[in-house]
Amino acid sequence: MIKKLLTYSLFCLTISVFAQTSTEDDLITIESTKQVDSFLQTKKHKGNKIVTFNEEKHKTILAKELFSMSRGAVKTKENEYEKTFYKVLEKNKTPYYRVSYIYLDGSKYTEADIASLRSTIVSKYNNGIPFSYLAKQYSMDAYAKKGGDLGWFTTGKMPVEFEAEVINGHHSLDDIFSVKIPERKAHYLILQTHEPKQIAEIKVLKIVEAIH
């Protein structure tokens, strides 16, 4: 009886080790997006997904370990219940930008009112009132609560006209400039708070398997 139990346990262990090794081997061979999609179809677990890590936002030990790995490398983490595989799919640096802004809604003010408000805000800023305070006082969208600070952002977060001026306008630190989008009746007063920054990002395929 004991011999049968030992044999069965060894058999189960062999299957488990083989399955884990097979998954890791499969991950190593993955190179294309099509292969990733096919692999995810065979691994049905809610934790299985592609995760993007941003070096500015993600400061965990795991994130730092993943950033130190080369493209295509695989890392495993294991606890009592499951084993998690991480494969680095892509490594790149993306330009990010950071400004603060005050949004004025042209559907609630006339053009003359907007011009007057803009002049008042710039004058107060030049007289030493912090832009963050002015944004909280005058801005008309959700970022007013943050003092107008957008945080680090890349293209696609703000209107095209806004981003084009920030990226291609050649503004220096502490410059204040305006952007008008007539079709949206949107007016922005923007403060250049940071120089553009290249931020490292990685895309990682995460696969979770239960340990039996």
Question: Secondary-structure blueprint of this entry?
Answer:
Blueprint (H helix, E strand, L loop, with lengths): L1 H28 L3 H10 L6 E6 L6 H8 L5 E5 L3 E15 L2 E7 L5 H16 L4 H8 L21 H9 L7 E6 L4 E7 L4 E14 L2
Mind explaining what this structure looks like?
- It is built from 6 helices and 7 strands, in the order H-H-E-H-E-E-E-H-H-H-E-E-E.
- The longest helix has 28 residues, at 2-29.
- A 4-stranded antiparallel sheet has the order 1-7-3-2. Strands 4-6-5 form a 3-stranded antiparallel sheet, sandwiched between helices.
- It has helices spanning 2-29, 33-42, 61-68, 111-126, 131-138, 160-168, and strands spanning 49-54, 74-78, 82-96, 99-105, 176-181, 186-192, 197-210.
- Residues 2-20 have low confidence and may be disordered.
- It is α+β, with helices and mostly antiparallel strands.
Short description:
The protein is α+β, with helices and mostly antiparallel strands and 212 residues long.
What keywords describe this structure?
disordered N terminus, alpha+beta, four-stranded antiparallel sheet, 6 helices, three-stranded antiparallel sheet, 212 residues
Overall number of strands: 7
Query: Taking strands numbered 1, 2, ... along the chain, how are they ordered across the largest sheet?
Result: 1-7-3-2
What gyration radius follows from the Cα positions, in whole Å? 26 Å
Distance between the termini: 22 Å
The poorly predicted ranges are 2-20
Measured as a percent range, the helix fraction is: 25-40%
Largest pleated sheet: 4 strands, antiparallel
The succession of helices and strands, N to C, reads HHEHEEEHHHEEE
Number of helices: 6
Strand content: 25-35%
Q: Which term fits the overall shape?
A: elongated
Class derived from helix and strand content: alpha+beta
Overall average pLDDT:
89
